[in-house]
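Support request from a user on the community tier.

User writes: "When I paste my C-alpha cells into the form, the page sometimes reloads and wipes my input. The last time it worked, I copied everything first. Here is what I submitted, just in case something in the input itself triggers the reload:"
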C-alpha cells in the first residue's frame, strides 16, 4: 500500500474526471489534498464531500491557472492553509478540436495557455516550497497526443509535447535539489472530456486500435500518478509513463 500520511498534494483541475480520481487516490493514501478548480465550484464541492466521506482533509482553491497572479495567490493560500506543500500534480487541461486552417490565433493561444503556460506558472511558484530531502516531487499529466501527434488537434498535441519536454528539462534542473519531476501520458480515458469522441461508432473505432481492447478508467491514471509520486519511484525522474492500453508503444 502506498502511503502519503500527512503530505500535502496540490492537484490542478482536481475537481472532476482524472483530477477527481487523483484526489481520491491521494486522500485514500492519507494525504491532504488541495483541489484546484477554475469555474465549476459545484464540482469542487462534490470532490471535497467525497474526500470527507473517505476521512481525508482537503480544501478547494479557485484559480485561473493561465493567470500568473492568480496562481501566485493560490499557492500562497495552499501553503498557509496546510502549512506545507509536498507534491504537485499538473492535471488541468483542455482538448478541443480544430482543423489547422480553421484554427484562429485565439483558439491556438487558449490551448497553449491552458495546457502549457499554466504548468510553467504552477511550477515556477510551487518549486520554492518543495524540499527534495522530504521526497517532494512534481507529476505532470501529458497525453499520447504529445508523443505521436493528433490530427485535428495540432494545438493540443503541441501543448502536450511541450509538457513532455518541460518535464525532462525540470527533472534535470531540479535533480541536484532532490526534487523529482515525472510525467504520466494517458491514452483514451473514460471522462466527460472524451465523451463526444466515444459517441455512436466512435467507441468501437477507438477501442479497435487499443491492444487491451478498452479505454482506460480515471482511477488507472491516478494509480500511475500515485506510484510516480511515491517513495517506490525514488530513483525515477524525467520519466514519461505511458498508460494507454498499448495504443502507443513508444516507451
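"...and here is what came back when it finally went through:"
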Amino acid at each position: 500500500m502506498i502511503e502519503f500520511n500527512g503530505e500535502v498534494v496540490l492537484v490542478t483541475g482536481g475537481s472532476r474526471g482524472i483530477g477527481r480520481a487523483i484526489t481520491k487516490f491521494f486522500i485514500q493514501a492519507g494525504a491532504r489534498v488541495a483541489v484546484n478548480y477554475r469555474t465549476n465550484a459545484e464540482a469542487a464541492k462534490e470532490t471535497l464531500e467525497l474526500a470527507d466521506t473517505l476521512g481525508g482533509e482537503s480544501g478547494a482553491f479557485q484559480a485561473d491557472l493561465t493567470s500568473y497572479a492568480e496562481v501566485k495567490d493560490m499557492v500562497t493560500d495552499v501553503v498557509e492553509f496546510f502549512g506545507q506543500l509536498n507534491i504537485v500534480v499538473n492535471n488541468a487541461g483542455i482538448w478541443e478540436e480544430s482543423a489547422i486552417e480553421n484554427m484562429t490565433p485565439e483558439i491556438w493561444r487558449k490551448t497553449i495557455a491552458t495546457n502549457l503556460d499554466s504548468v510553467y506558472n504552477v511550477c515556477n511558484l510551487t518549486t520554492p516550497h518543495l524540499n527534495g530531502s522530504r521526497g517532494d516531487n512534481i507529476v505532470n499529466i501529458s497525453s499520447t497526443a504529445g508523443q505521436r501527434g493528433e490530427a485535428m488537434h495540432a494545438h493540443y498535441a503541441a501543448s502536450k509535447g511541450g509538457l513532455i519536454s518541460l518535464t525532462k528539462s525540470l527533472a534535470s534542473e531540479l535533480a541536484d535539489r532532490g526534487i523529482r519531476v515525472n510525467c504520466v501520458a494517458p491514452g483514451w480515458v473514460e471522462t466527460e472530456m472524451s465523451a463526444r469522441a466515444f459517441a455512436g461508432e466512435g467507441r468501437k473505432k477507438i477501442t479497435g486500435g487499443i491492444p487491451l481492447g478498452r479505454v482506460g478508467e480515471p482511477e488507472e491514471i491516478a494509480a500511475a500518478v500515485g506510484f510516480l509520486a511515491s517513495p517506490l519511484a525514488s530513483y525515477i525522474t524525467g520519466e514519461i509513463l505511458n498508460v494507454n492500453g498499448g495504443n502507443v508503444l513508444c516507451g
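Agent notes: The reload is a front-end session timeout and is unrelated to the input. The radius of gyration is 17 Å. The mean pLDDT is 95. Escalated to web team.
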